[in-house]
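For reproducibility, we list the full input for the phosphoenolpyruvate complex.
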Amino acid sequence: MADGTESESRKLLGRLREAMASDDAGQARLDKITHLIADSMGTEVCSIYLFRDSETLELCATEGLQPESVHQTRLRMGEGLVGRVAKYSKVINTPDAPSAKGFRYMPETGEERFSSFLGIPVQRLGEKLGVLVVQSRDAREFSADEVYALEVVAMVVAEMTELGAFVGEGAALSPLHQQSVLLRGGTGQEGAAEGHVWLHEPRVVVTNPIADDPHRELERLNEAVEELRVGVDKMLEMSQNGDKEQLQVLEAYRMFANSKGWMRRMEEDIARGLSAEAAVEKEQSQARARMEQVNDAYLRERLADLDDLSNRLLRILTGQGSNSGAELPADPILVARNIGPGELLEYGRSLKGIVLEEGSVGSHAAIVARALAIPLVVHTARITTEALNGDHIMVDGDQGIVHLRPDDTVVTAFRDKIAMQADAQERYASIRDRKTVTLDGKELSLVMNAGLMADLPSLDSSGAEGVGLFRTELQFLVRNQMPKRSELVSLYGRVLDAAHGKRVVFRTLDIGSDKVLPYMKPTDEPNPALGWRAIRVGLDKPGVMRMQLQALIRAANGRPLTIMFPFVAQAEEYHMARAEVDKTIERERKLGHVLPETLEVGAMLETPSLAFAPQKFFDDVGFLSVGGNDLKQFFFAADRENERVRRRYDTLNVSFLSLIERIVERCAISGTPLSFCGEDAGRPIEALCLAAMGIRTLSMRPASIGPVKSLLLRSNLDELRKIISDARHRGEQSVRPAVMAWLKQQS
Ligand code: PEP
Ligand code: MG
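The corresponding predicted structure, in tokenized form, follows.
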């Protein structure tokens, strides 16, 4: 095929298809394919390397290299030219392989005799499957046409691999998606769960990568693209008055759907013998590979749009809708690249666990998962390409680990862990109604964090004494449009009803930074966490804040009401917000609404500056709650959303504990009620140390109340305080080692 004509290309694909249709075993098919490609390309060598596991490439078939090296030669990802092609999903085309960067000589293959090298990644929808290589003795660079032809062939090899065409006895490969794999991600929500995979977006299966009638395929492609365009136009029409960001995405869809370059490449793929589906997939795979390489956030987003659009096109072509017809298993573990909070709420508590390929700890989906107490692992690379609907899966949200198709030893160990957790839950249930009094007689109040109606039943089951933080923004985040005041009145009213007189601290809208309302104009800020967020938005644009205050007052309808303002950085912000409350009360009184029986207004201490506010602030404020998640991020200058740094600094670092100590002292002078409501309040060791520093109210996820209470009941805070002081005097950076040693001694 040195002249690279389309008909040559089609002829080769036709022969490949015959090889695929034969009754041969997997290995024989592979051998035949390498032979056919070498013959057709006029090269001395053609080799296929496939992944044995996610890191190891194995030479699985060759024409021209030493036959003994088949299934013997293995390379790690990134090793040698072949490993580099796989790692970077990049074509390597060189006339002088031994001098090329990364070349590694493998004597068993006898490849030193071959000078030119062309390696093409074999991948399908972002899943790296292997590398296809041709080599020849003469030092020449392969032409663009030859590269293109081999890319088309690589696509077919990818589809065949996916369809299991090379699986078989002997040294041939074991089928894809059947091995047991361990994937590491990040903790989104703690807890362990076992179940079966439910793909939010099922994989599209292409059974016919090769087609003989390019005209028919072109027609099919054109018809599908037309349907796609009409669909996108319709979506655009319907969203004209809607969210701007969504409009931008749709505009990008329209641009791609009308892109001549995209169409032309797919038409060329078809002219060379690919079916319409395989042509779409080829372009999509290449876009995904590019996505891995680019750092520019805008470009990545656009490539993600293209990916999404290609999926739609594939679904039109294959007739496989996003509903695969599969039934939701009894114990579904949702697997998705990402998922919106609304969609997640629709699944609700039916899910046993969630694994996201992307997602982030502070994403809306993570917030909802947390509210529903569903174990969640985020940032789990490859999960959507590895997992198939119905696969057995175990999710360890504590460690951020996912076992897909686990083997028996893992299953046993994991079930032991779940059983231990269940035992612990039983033990916690037995102390649920006990007061939290430590061995040295200190009484604490354990309350819970909430944000959705779905949280409220946990108030009874966990034994929480009230809701220490009700994140009102969740109701705003899970909707497509701003909720109406009447809806908020009804919701807050139901929350108070469900609390049966227990205190509920309603935090006013905390938006901005990582929490962006889908229907609000996005602000382009260089540093959103330090930007226009929470009370800053509330004071600058008081309309929404007023509406929320009114809704709270009306919902209380004569009952006690507690309101808390987030992210107060200086006293004046609190005073201005407090003045809004007073004005709203006055207005509501005039309108004839019943006013709350009692009204408490407080602030969150989330910036170090507030800890050093004038003492008068501590006198004035109704109560304070330390938002440890934000306070820590600003105290250590470590982004709470950034996996690289978010665990870098210990809450038990003496600097942070000194800050807490200072806040406790200042509140004590004024008699200001103080609580702590960041995630650390729900971690037993951290909670214990916060209690030792003098915090008496801890607000946490409901599931944490049992473990935290259990440890507090067994502890002497005075003794622990001394352990902490001694460690500080010894000059230790974190008191954790000393605390752990002390705890060990106790048990
Ligand atoms: C905090 O910052 O600790 C907090 C409780 O608020 P959020 O996590 O909602 O920012
Ligand atoms: Mg906060």
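The chain has 27 helices and 23 strands. The pocket of magnesium ion (ligand 2) is lined by residues 566, 606, 627, 629-630 (CB under 6 Å). Both points were considered when choosing residues for closer inspection.
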